[in-house]
Specification:
Elements lengths: L22 E5 L6 E8 L2 E9 L5 E9 L6 E4 L6 E7 L2 E4 L21 E6 L2 H6 L13
Antiparallel strand pairs: 1-2, 1-8, 2-3, 3-4, 4-5, 5-6, 6-7, 7-8
Length: 143
């Protein structure tokens, strides 16, 4: 028998499960389902999200995820400062009900990210990369 010796891995070849949060999360159904994709890229967890409100109102954005897997913080990359505190339990991400004022920048009227809850439907990178944004473009475009 040949002894097994684990030598570790670099960011580029680490399995997505090592990222803990990586994958595709969804809630709702049909054309207006909420979705978050999280992928590990360049040593960081990056995300894209679409959350629907009433009618055709929605929130969308992207950025980086920081913090521990059970209490992630979603930091939007954009013109308005917005860091969303969340909780993750049992494969479900739930955003805090109280958000910084800058987060409203990423939403149209009648939509909010506050309290949004999405369940992980896949931990596979390829599934996360297939998620689409509001206009049908990749939500977590590969880079």
């Amino acid at each position: 028998m040949i002894p097994f010796r684990w030598t570790g891995w670099s960011d580029s070849d680490a399995p997505e499960s090592s990222a803990g949060l990586a994958g595709l999360y969804r809630s709702g159904s049909g054309e207006h389902d909420n979705r978050i994709c999280i992928v590990k890229r360049a040593g960081a967890l990056q995300f894209g999200l679409v959350v629907w409100g009433s009618g055709a109102s929605s929130c969308s954005g992207s950025g980086v995820v920081n913090g521990p897997p059970d209490a992630p913080r979603f930091q939007m990359a954009g013109d308005s400062p917005c860091t969303i505190k969340a909780a993750r339990k049992g494969g479900r991400i739930t955003f805090a009900s109280g958000l910084p004022p800058g987060c409203s920048y990423y939403c149209s009227p009648k939509a909010s990210l506050a309290g949004a809850a999405l369940a992980q439907v896949s931990s596979r990178r390829d599934q996360a990369l297939r998620a689409k944004d509001l206009v049908g473009e990749p939500l977590c475009a590969s880079g």
